What does this fold into?
Amino acid sequence: MTKKILLTILTILLLSVPAFGQDYIVGEDDVLKVMVYDHDDMTTTVRVSGDGTIILPLLNRVNVAGMTITAISEKVSKLLADGYIVNPQVNMFIEEFRSKKVVILGQVNKPGLYELSGVTSLLELISKAGGLTKDAGGTTIIKRKTGPGDADRNDVMTIDMTRLIEKGDTSQNVMMMSGDNVYIEKAGVYYVTGEVKKPDAYKFEEDMTVIKAITKAGGFSDKASKGTVNIIRRIHDREEVMKKAKMDEPILPEDVIVVPESFF
It folds into this structure.
Protein backbone atom coordinates (compact mmCIF):
# COMPACT_ATOMS: atom_id res chain seq x y z
CA MET A 1 0.00 0.00 0.00
CA THR A 2 2.32 2.71 -1.23
CA LYS A 3 1.73 6.44 -0.90
CA LYS A 4 1.74 6.75 -4.70
CA ILE A 5 -1.10 4.25 -5.05
CA LEU A 6 -3.04 5.93 -2.24
CA LEU A 7 -2.70 9.39 -3.80
CA THR A 8 -3.74 8.09 -7.24
CA ILE A 9 -6.92 6.48 -5.93
CA LEU A 10 -7.67 9.48 -3.72
CA THR A 11 -7.42 11.81 -6.73
CA ILE A 12 -9.87 9.67 -8.70
CA LEU A 13 -12.32 9.58 -5.81
CA LEU A 14 -12.12 13.31 -5.20
CA LEU A 15 -13.25 13.91 -8.76
CA SER A 16 -16.43 11.96 -8.06
CA VAL A 17 -17.31 13.51 -4.69
CA PRO A 18 -20.35 15.50 -5.97
CA ALA A 19 -22.09 12.21 -6.76
CA PHE A 20 -22.21 11.44 -3.05
CA GLY A 21 -24.04 14.68 -2.18
CA GLN A 22 -27.50 13.33 -2.91
CA ASP A 23 -26.88 10.38 -0.57
CA TYR A 24 -25.67 12.56 2.29
CA ILE A 25 -27.90 12.28 5.35
CA VAL A 26 -28.78 15.77 6.57
CA GLY A 27 -28.48 16.73 10.20
CA GLU A 28 -28.66 19.58 12.63
CA ASP A 29 -27.25 22.89 11.32
CA ASP A 30 -27.03 21.79 7.67
CA VAL A 31 -28.18 24.62 5.39
CA LEU A 32 -30.39 23.63 2.44
CA LYS A 33 -31.26 25.59 -0.71
CA VAL A 34 -34.77 24.75 -1.93
CA MET A 35 -36.08 25.73 -5.37
CA VAL A 36 -39.36 24.90 -7.09
CA TYR A 37 -39.39 25.18 -10.88
CA ASP A 38 -41.47 28.10 -12.18
CA HIS A 39 -42.25 29.24 -8.62
CA ASP A 40 -39.55 31.72 -7.69
CA ASP A 41 -41.49 32.76 -4.61
CA MET A 42 -40.85 29.28 -3.20
CA THR A 43 -37.07 29.61 -3.40
CA THR A 44 -35.66 29.63 0.11
CA THR A 45 -32.63 28.79 2.20
CA VAL A 46 -33.28 26.92 5.43
CA ARG A 47 -31.25 25.52 8.28
CA VAL A 48 -32.06 22.12 9.79
CA SER A 49 -33.13 22.65 13.40
CA GLY A 50 -32.12 20.60 16.41
CA ASP A 51 -35.31 18.54 16.17
CA GLY A 52 -34.58 17.63 12.54
CA THR A 53 -37.11 19.93 10.87
CA ILE A 54 -37.06 22.74 8.31
CA ILE A 55 -39.61 25.49 7.68
CA LEU A 56 -40.79 25.95 4.07
CA PRO A 57 -43.28 28.34 2.42
CA LEU A 58 -46.83 26.92 2.34
CA LEU A 59 -45.79 23.76 4.19
CA ASN A 60 -44.45 25.31 7.39
CA ARG A 61 -42.53 22.71 9.46
CA VAL A 62 -41.29 19.58 7.64
CA ASN A 63 -39.48 16.73 9.37
CA VAL A 64 -36.30 15.74 7.49
CA ALA A 65 -34.41 13.91 10.26
CA GLY A 66 -32.33 10.99 8.98
CA MET A 67 -33.21 11.68 5.34
CA THR A 68 -31.03 12.16 2.27
CA ILE A 69 -31.33 15.16 -0.05
CA THR A 70 -33.04 12.97 -2.66
CA ALA A 71 -35.58 11.70 -0.13
CA ILE A 72 -36.30 15.22 1.15
CA SER A 73 -36.84 16.51 -2.40
CA GLU A 74 -39.32 13.70 -3.06
CA LYS A 75 -41.13 14.33 0.24
CA VAL A 76 -41.45 18.07 -0.40
CA SER A 77 -42.70 17.39 -3.94
CA LYS A 78 -45.46 15.11 -2.61
CA LEU A 79 -46.46 17.60 0.07
CA LEU A 80 -46.68 20.48 -2.41
CA ALA A 81 -48.64 18.33 -4.85
CA ASP A 82 -51.25 17.72 -2.16
CA GLY A 83 -53.37 20.78 -2.88
CA TYR A 84 -50.71 23.45 -3.38
CA ILE A 85 -48.89 23.13 -6.73
CA VAL A 86 -49.68 21.00 -9.79
CA ASN A 87 -46.79 18.65 -10.61
CA PRO A 88 -44.14 20.51 -8.58
CA GLN A 89 -40.50 20.11 -9.65
CA VAL A 90 -38.38 20.49 -6.54
CA ASN A 91 -34.60 20.93 -6.62
CA MET A 92 -32.65 20.87 -3.39
CA PHE A 93 -28.96 21.34 -2.65
CA ILE A 94 -26.75 21.42 0.42
CA GLU A 95 -25.50 24.98 0.64
CA GLU A 96 -23.58 24.55 3.88
CA PHE A 97 -22.60 21.32 5.60
CA ARG A 98 -22.60 20.97 9.34
CA SER A 99 -19.31 20.11 11.01
CA LYS A 100 -18.82 16.38 11.60
CA LYS A 101 -16.53 15.07 14.32
CA VAL A 102 -14.70 11.83 13.61
CA VAL A 103 -11.97 10.05 15.57
CA ILE A 104 -9.24 8.17 13.70
CA LEU A 105 -6.65 6.15 15.60
CA GLY A 106 -4.07 3.50 14.92
CA GLN A 107 -1.66 3.42 12.01
CA VAL A 108 -1.99 6.96 10.63
CA ASN A 109 0.63 9.67 10.96
CA LYS A 110 -1.65 12.15 12.77
CA PRO A 111 -4.24 10.26 14.81
CA GLY A 112 -6.88 12.24 16.68
CA LEU A 113 -10.23 14.02 16.51
CA TYR A 114 -11.08 15.69 13.19
CA GLU A 115 -13.88 18.09 12.32
CA LEU A 116 -14.98 17.48 8.74
CA SER A 117 -17.10 19.78 6.60
CA GLY A 118 -19.06 18.20 3.82
CA VAL A 119 -19.09 14.70 2.40
CA THR A 120 -15.87 12.95 3.44
CA SER A 121 -14.80 9.44 2.51
CA LEU A 122 -12.54 7.10 4.46
CA LEU A 123 -9.62 7.77 2.11
CA GLU A 124 -10.07 11.52 2.47
CA LEU A 125 -10.09 11.16 6.26
CA ILE A 126 -6.88 9.12 6.10
CA SER A 127 -5.34 11.83 3.94
CA LYS A 128 -6.34 14.50 6.47
CA ALA A 129 -4.72 12.36 9.17
CA GLY A 130 -1.38 12.44 7.35
CA GLY A 131 -1.72 9.15 5.51
CA LEU A 132 -0.97 5.60 6.58
CA THR A 133 2.16 4.64 8.47
CA LYS A 134 4.54 2.03 7.09
CA ASP A 135 3.17 -0.44 9.64
CA ALA A 136 -0.47 -0.11 8.54
CA GLY A 137 -2.20 -3.42 8.07
CA GLY A 138 -4.90 -4.62 5.73
CA THR A 139 -7.88 -4.00 8.02
CA THR A 140 -9.70 -0.90 9.23
CA ILE A 141 -12.46 -1.05 11.84
CA ILE A 142 -15.21 1.60 11.90
CA LYS A 143 -17.56 1.82 14.87
CA ARG A 144 -20.71 3.84 14.16
CA LYS A 145 -23.58 4.77 16.47
CA THR A 146 -26.80 3.13 15.34
CA GLY A 147 -28.96 6.18 15.91
CA PRO A 148 -29.99 9.01 18.25
CA GLY A 149 -30.10 7.90 21.84
CA ASP A 150 -28.24 4.65 21.18
CA ALA A 151 -24.88 5.83 22.45
CA ASP A 152 -24.06 2.37 23.80
CA ARG A 153 -24.93 0.55 20.57
CA ASN A 154 -22.62 0.55 17.59
CA ASP A 155 -22.49 -0.94 14.15
CA VAL A 156 -19.04 -2.32 13.39
CA MET A 157 -17.73 -2.26 9.83
CA THR A 158 -14.58 -4.05 8.71
CA ILE A 159 -12.86 -2.43 5.73
CA ASP A 160 -10.45 -4.43 3.58
CA MET A 161 -7.67 -1.93 2.86
CA THR A 162 -6.02 -4.20 0.31
CA ARG A 163 -9.20 -4.26 -1.77
CA LEU A 164 -9.62 -0.50 -1.36
CA ILE A 165 -6.10 0.76 -1.99
CA GLU A 166 -4.41 -1.86 -4.13
CA LYS A 167 -7.43 -3.11 -6.09
CA GLY A 168 -9.39 0.15 -6.23
CA ASP A 169 -12.60 -1.32 -4.79
CA THR A 170 -14.53 1.87 -4.02
CA SER A 171 -17.26 -0.08 -2.20
CA GLN A 172 -14.80 -0.13 0.70
CA ASN A 173 -14.43 3.67 0.64
CA VAL A 174 -17.35 4.40 2.96
CA MET A 175 -18.59 7.90 3.72
CA MET A 176 -17.83 9.18 7.20
CA MET A 177 -20.64 10.10 9.59
CA SER A 178 -20.50 12.27 12.68
CA GLY A 179 -19.40 10.25 15.70
CA ASP A 180 -17.54 7.59 13.72
CA ASN A 181 -14.56 5.94 15.40
CA VAL A 182 -12.00 4.68 12.89
CA TYR A 183 -9.15 2.37 13.82
CA ILE A 184 -6.39 1.45 11.35
CA GLU A 185 -4.94 -1.84 12.49
CA LYS A 186 -1.24 -2.60 12.59
CA ALA A 187 0.00 -5.19 10.16
CA GLY A 188 1.02 -8.56 11.50
CA VAL A 189 4.59 -9.76 11.13
CA TYR A 190 6.31 -13.03 10.39
CA TYR A 191 9.89 -14.07 11.01
CA VAL A 192 12.46 -15.69 8.77
CA THR A 193 15.55 -17.11 10.41
CA GLY A 194 18.40 -19.50 9.71
CA GLU A 195 20.11 -19.88 6.35
CA VAL A 196 18.68 -16.89 4.46
CA LYS A 197 20.55 -13.79 3.39
CA LYS A 198 18.49 -11.32 5.45
CA PRO A 199 16.96 -12.99 8.52
CA ASP A 200 14.53 -10.59 10.17
CA ALA A 201 10.91 -9.79 11.02
CA TYR A 202 8.81 -8.82 7.99
CA LYS A 203 5.43 -7.18 7.49
CA PHE A 204 2.75 -9.75 6.78
CA GLU A 205 0.90 -9.45 3.47
CA GLU A 206 -2.07 -11.35 2.10
CA ASP A 207 -1.34 -14.48 0.08
CA MET A 208 2.09 -14.80 1.67
CA THR A 209 3.70 -18.23 1.17
CA VAL A 210 6.92 -19.83 2.34
CA ILE A 211 8.78 -19.13 -0.89
CA LYS A 212 7.56 -15.50 -0.97
CA ALA A 213 8.69 -15.03 2.62
CA ILE A 214 12.12 -16.48 1.87
CA THR A 215 12.41 -14.27 -1.21
CA LYS A 216 11.62 -11.22 0.96
CA ALA A 217 14.46 -12.34 3.21
CA GLY A 218 16.91 -12.23 0.31
CA GLY A 219 16.63 -15.88 -0.66
CA PHE A 220 18.47 -18.96 0.53
CA SER A 221 22.10 -18.77 1.61
CA ASP A 222 24.67 -21.11 0.08
CA LYS A 223 24.43 -23.37 3.15
CA ALA A 224 20.63 -23.67 3.16
CA SER A 225 18.86 -26.99 3.27
CA LYS A 226 16.10 -26.02 0.86
CA GLY A 227 14.07 -29.19 1.30
CA THR A 228 13.73 -29.08 5.09
CA VAL A 229 12.23 -25.67 5.79
CA ASN A 230 10.16 -25.68 8.99
CA ILE A 231 7.38 -23.39 10.22
CA ILE A 232 6.92 -22.73 13.92
CA ARG A 233 3.33 -21.63 14.54
CA ARG A 234 1.64 -20.65 17.79
CA ILE A 235 -1.83 -22.16 18.13
CA HIS A 236 -3.86 -21.58 21.30
CA ASP A 237 -0.84 -20.64 23.42
CA ARG A 238 1.27 -23.58 22.31
CA GLU A 239 3.82 -23.94 19.55
CA GLU A 240 3.52 -26.42 16.73
CA VAL A 241 6.24 -27.23 14.20
CA MET A 242 5.36 -27.92 10.57
CA LYS A 243 8.32 -29.89 9.26
CA LYS A 244 9.48 -29.88 5.65
CA ALA A 245 6.92 -27.25 4.64
CA LYS A 246 6.09 -26.96 0.96
CA MET A 247 7.27 -23.82 -0.79
CA ASP A 248 3.66 -22.84 -1.66
CA GLU A 249 2.46 -23.36 1.93
CA PRO A 250 0.52 -20.26 3.11
CA ILE A 251 1.91 -18.61 6.23
CA LEU A 252 0.17 -16.70 8.99
CA PRO A 253 1.08 -13.65 11.08
CA GLU A 254 3.58 -14.51 13.83
CA ASP A 255 4.83 -17.60 11.98
CA VAL A 256 8.55 -18.31 12.29
CA ILE A 257 10.10 -19.78 9.14
CA VAL A 258 13.27 -21.67 9.94
CA VAL A 259 15.72 -22.54 7.17
CA PRO A 260 18.24 -25.08 8.53
CA GLU A 261 21.80 -25.55 7.39
CA SER A 262 22.60 -28.36 4.99
CA PHE A 263 25.33 -30.73 6.18
CA PHE A 264 26.02 -32.26 2.78
